[in-house]
Give the backbone structure.
Amino acid sequence: MLHIRKKILVGALCASMVLSASQSVAWSESNSMTAEAGSAEAGSEESAADTAEAETSTAEASTSEAEPVEDEKQPIQEDDVLAECELAASNENFELLVNTKTGLFAFRTKDGEHIWWSNPYNADDDPVANNSKKEDLKSSLVINAVKVTDTESPSTTVRSWKDSVNAIVETADDIRPGLTVTMVDNGFRAEYTFPNEGITIPYYITLEGDYIQASIAVDEITETESDPTLVQESSRSVVDVNLLQDLGAAFSDEEGYIITPDGSGAVINFNNGKNKANEYTQRIYGRDLAKSQDMAPAKTEQAYLPVMGIVRNDNALLEVVTEGSAYATARAAVSGQKSTSYNSAWFNFQLRATDTYFMGGQNASALNAYQEDIIPEDRLTVRYYPIVKDDVSYVDVAKRYQQYLVEEKGLTKNDKEEAPLYLDIWGGTVKEQSILGFPVKLETAATTYEQAKQILQELTANGVSNIVVSYEDFNAAGITSRISSKVDYSGTLGGKNKWNELKSYCDASGIMLAPSFDLMNYERSGNGYTKTGASSIAITKAYATQGVYELAFGTPHDTRSSWYILSPSFYERVYGEVVSSCQKDGITAMSVAEGTNMLYSDYTANTSRYTSRQQAVNNLIKGYEMINQSGMTFVSGAANDYALPYVDYLKDVPLYSSNFDVYDYDIPFYEIVIHGYIPYTTKAKNASSSADELFVYSVATGTPLHYEVMYQDPNEFTDCSYDELFYTHYSGWLNDMTAEYKLMQQYVLPLTDETIEDFEITDGTHYKTTFSDGTVVEADVSTLQIWVNGTEVKLSDFEQKGATTD
């Protein structure tokens, strides 16, 4: 009797859902068919034949409708869509509205002039999209799911519109739709249940002041695959989630662009016609180094900031990941690129790490390895800040993100004018040498402490008085590739007495000397950290080793050694050790090599050591705080956003993006965010293949210069870890450093504590920057000309007369 009753209830619920969908103006009339298909075929992958059949039946159904054809083609009106929504929250400036049956929501200005939809409300009218793409457009969540226990399990795409909103959840004592929306403080909670896959994902949408916030409640996600009492053949587990991938999306008849966080920042114009280019996809903070890499990774810039933007003529939307950024991937596509008419920018979140491995002979197929448990986070959160302004631009978006960092992350204003020369000095490495005809690996000096002092003396004699020095591989641990947990001066470079002489000279000359400690990479055990006991473990449970690759083929190098990465569970310990050691030796400034831009996990089975990427961020921040609390000056390499509030000087800020095919042009988004707040410099000029262009662009953005040098001839360091430093012989750069430094003192120094208020690009090569004090700097990178307040500035005016370059 109960079984018969449930069948009747299921039938009634199906009929109700179909009727509701067909009557709702929020989606077009084809939804009744979508609902039926979703109930009958939930969880199955669509084949081309299925899609064709669905389209044919849709066409037949539309011609057999009783209403006149011209009525069916009437466009959906936004006011009608809004009429079906409920007010979920409001404040003095904004309103949040939601359709509790479909999950479609919108937030708008109180005056109704501007509105941003979670999904295109007229998605079914998209002339480009096929049925599955229309389901994507109507889905707030698009999920990739697998059987984590099956190494050959293919990924399944699950869409919230088809597989939850239009699905029926049937339990022992309940029958209900797959979507449940309930009101909460300042917004609503939407719970999406995917009955075929046995997955339930809730998220919260709330209105918070001048932004809305979307939070995936990771701690409330349920998966039947992990429950022996509920698991079924179709059960799957979540690998990653595309969150609100079409929120604020722009149709193909709109003008505007998308901002990506790649390197300095880049712009993708709406409808740019680059449909054959790959969609923009970039992991925030770079790839997880605990994942195996069989071939050389592509050489690209990194996404240091967890932000994206969508800009129209009179409004923009800033998207910021505020929780779980270490799991985020920035994604974007233009109209036609993902087979829709929309231009979209969104974040994908990885809830389970994946990797591949091989077992068997040479022709063995790759097997998949999945993280067994979901990430140990409570929330994955994105904020959406609307910006309403005539002629809004990426500068306004960058300034709003800057405001966020100041108000919520502790970024502080720089009140000191200074434009130092940033100088990286390379100390030494292990190099194979011939002893009595036998190859022997020996510690080899590139720049001894005494030679470093000589370089600085020559610069100060030329009038270069303000220098920030990062001394790379300055100690025995750095040269021999051990974890640098203590100062440990190198005898090869001169020992402690010569170091003290160098330090005394720097102190007397006002030069900042920051020894660099690599606390992540190591080849050899030592200083309390062994390769077998302290290195990170990959998902496959092998050591997460890193390697050098052949330049020609991208395959692992035959003769160069691989190295290990220190488990993030040791960060707090090793930072404490090195800070204590520096304090005992009177060191007043330090650098941590790649410690502000390199990020990875430890997937060890040892629960006391397991560290997710986000937990690694938290451990790093504890280390940064130790440096700050010690009173030492923190000189940083390129920095992810979480490091910015802690660094005192910042190097290697990118001026360019990765130049992906889908891009239209680069922008100095990163520079706009930090200028006037953190003293910074670019990547080394002498390492650039377009050094003169980099110099001109640096002046345009008010950025001091950076060089890398060694005393010895770099040609002596081929076939070792220094073989890529061929450009660093100091003597060849002395005159350039001197002239450029003097120009910077006159024109850039007064701007270093100012903010960038506007930036314009004309003809692709002419840049114009307006600073907060009214100064306007222009530069043309094609003609290598610079103008400050309309007057041309020439580098030749600062060159030493009669000087020659060796």
